[in-house]
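Protocol step 4 of 6.
Sequence for Regulation of enolase protein 1, concanavalin A-like superfamily (Amycolatopsis saalfeldensis) entered exactly as in the expression construct, tag removed. Do not edit the line below.
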Amino acid sequence: MRARSVAFTQTLVTLASVLAFSLTGPAAVAGAAGRAPSSHHGECATPSIDRLQQWLASGEGTTVPATGSLLVPAGNRYAAKVTFLNAEWHVAVVWLGNQFEAQEDFTRSRGFWLTYRAADDLYVQLRPASHWSGGDKWLTRVPSTGGKLVTKFFSFSPGAWTSLPELGTPPYSFASALTEARGLVFVGKTPNRLEFRGLRIDGYRPPCL
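Step 5 output, C-alpha cells:
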C-alpha cells in the first residue's frame, strides 16, 4: 500500500514538472520576445496612445485631417488616424515629450515598438531639437502592412537609419540625434491610409501633461 502511495506521488510530481515546462519553456519565451511589452504605464487623463498625447497633422502635404490632432476614439482607447492624399510629401508628427520644447535622450534605448496599419510604405524620421525643421533627417522605412494591424520593432542602431537624396543629407550624426530627440515624424510621398494604435519606446515613460 505504501509503495502504491509513493508511486502515485511521483506521478503527480512528474505531471507538475511537465505542466510547468509547457508554460515557461522555449515556445512561451520565444512568443514573449517576439511582441511588444504590454503597456504598464497607464494612459493620460486626456487622449493618448501609450501616454503620447500629441499626434499631429502638420499641414505639410494634403492630408485628412489637414491640421490638428490625429487622435480619435477606438473602443475604450484611442487611435491616431491620418490619410495622405496625392503624390506629394506628407508629414504627421509625434512629440515625444508631449510638448514641442521637450527633448529626450535615447542613447540607452534599444528602439521602439510601433503598432500600426498602412496601405503603402512610408518613413519615420527621428528629429532632434537642434535640427527640427527641414526634410534632411535620419529616417527608416516603415513598410506597408497591406491594411492589416501589425506590431513591428524599429531599432535605434545607427545602421538601421539612413537618409534620402531627395530630402537631403543630415548635417549631424544619428548618434547626436538620439541625445536630443524631440519627435518622431512620419513622412510619405504616396497616397496612404494610416492608423497608429501603439508606440512604446524602450526604457522611456512619457510624461502626461
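Step 6, annotate. Confidence is low (pLDDT under 50) at residues 1-34.
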